[in-house]
Amino acid sequence: xxxxxxxxxxxxxxxxxxxxxxxxxxxxxxxxxxxxxxxxxxxxxxxxxxxxxxxxxxxxxxxxxxxxxxxxxxxxxxxxxxxxxxxxxxxxxxxxxxxxxxxxxxxxxxxxxxxxxxxxxxxxxxxxxxxxxxxxxxxxxxxxxxxxxxxxxxxxxxxxxxxxxxxxxxxxxxxxxxxxxxxxxxxxxxxxxxxxxxxxxxxxxxxxxxxxxxxxxxxxxxxxxxxx
Length: 228
Hints:
The protein is α+β, with helices and mostly antiparallel strands.
C-alpha cells in the first residue's frame, strides 16, 4: 500500500468516526440524563426532609448514603459514555457484553422507529478489540437500520472459533409497527453510508459483507489494522 493510499484510508476512517460520533451523541446525552435523574430526585427528597419541622436524622443518614451511591454510579456511567467519544485503548473485551452495551445505547432510537432487537450473542464467549465493537459493529447497526423504513426485528448473532469471529446483524419481519408511526430516525445528523462503515472496517481489520437485509463482520486476529 502506497503512503498516499494509506493516508487517504486513514482520513476516510477519521471522517467516518466523526459521522458515527454525531449519530451517537443524542443517545449518549439521553443515557447521561438518565443516570443523573435519580440524583436530582433523591436530592429534592433530601432537601424536603431537612426542611421538615422534626427531621429524622437516621433516615437522613440513609438518604445521604443512597445519594452517595447514586453519584458514584453516575460518575462511572458518565466516564464510560465519554469513552465512546474518545476511546482510551483498544483492549480485548467480551463480545457478548460489548454487543449488549451497544444495543442498550441505541435501544431508545431503535424502539421509537419500530425495531425490536433480538440479541443471540449472550452465550458467545469470544473476545474482540473494543474498537471493532464500538465503531464497526455500532456503525453497521445504524447503517443497516437507516436503510429500513418499516418496523422490523433486528437479530444479532455471532459464531466462529478463537481468532476468527463472525458477527452478523440481520433484518427480519417483526418489530413494533405501532411505534414506527412515530416517525423515522431521529433528525440528528446525516444517515450513515456503507462507505462510512467500510472505512471503519478497513481501519480495524474487519472484512465486511452487507446486503439490504443483513451485514456480517468477519474478524481474524491476523488481519492488518491501520494505525490511528
